[in-house]
Specification:
The complex is a heterodimer of chains A (113) and B (112). Chain A is mainly beta and 113 residues long. Chain A has no helices and eleven strands. In chain A, strands 2, 4, 5, 6, 9, 10 and 11 form a seven-stranded mixed beta sheet that branches. A four-stranded antiparallel beta sheet of chain A has the order 1-3-8-7, with no helix packed on it. The radius of gyration of chain B is 13 Å and the shape is globular. Chain B has 112 residues and is mainly β. Chain B has no helices and twelve strands. The chains are: A mainly beta (113), B mainly beta (112). At the A-B interface, β4, β5, β9 and β10 of A face β5, β6 and β11 of B.
Amino acid sequence: DAGVIQSPRHEVTEMGQEVTLRCKPISGHDYLFWYRQTMMRGLELLIYFNNNVPIDDSGMPEDRFSAKMPNASFSTLKIQPSEPRDSAVYFCASSLREGSQAFFGQGTRLTVV
Amino acid sequence: AQSVAQPEDQVNVAEGNPLTVKCTYSVSGNPYLFWYVQYPNRGLQFLLKYITGDNLVKGSYGFEAEFNKSQTSFHLKKPSALVSDSALYFCAVRDERGKLIFGQGTELSVKP
């Protein structure tokens, strides 16, 4: 398996634009996580899914953020409208059952200007 | 609610000396505990985990961690540090519902 695949690797967009980040988890994994990493706030859990169902979205910062998992092999994180403070590295990760380690993608570096 | 604390933002060690990176946690039920490492401009890489069993867990690259239930700690250790161990280290806890959260990270610097 190629691991967790995220796209794009880098995204530069203007304030107010819609941004969509994509993730393909490892085949067979039941859990999918979205994290945001910044210098100030560290690695924050935004939302996670189990068997394509969102379980906890308490980390989503505000209504401008939304995430979907239409099937077991694809998830998106959307920001609309984007703001400069959304600039960060966004990671997707997937895992098997509760006691398993998560495998991370390479991340998407988002810059909102 | 579960939480993870890494009390040191940075740890400095001389090459060849032992290293310890500290972690304490709080979680309902049985904890699943993990350590990850992140190199610049890379994703997180799994080092080791504690699920159940022996309190001393051995992982990749000579790292090990000691689970202490009474102190709710899971400190990362290595007997002899290498310059190449310099990186950002994250402790994580996962609850029985599968939620996985991370500490703030500790930057390890190993000098020759």
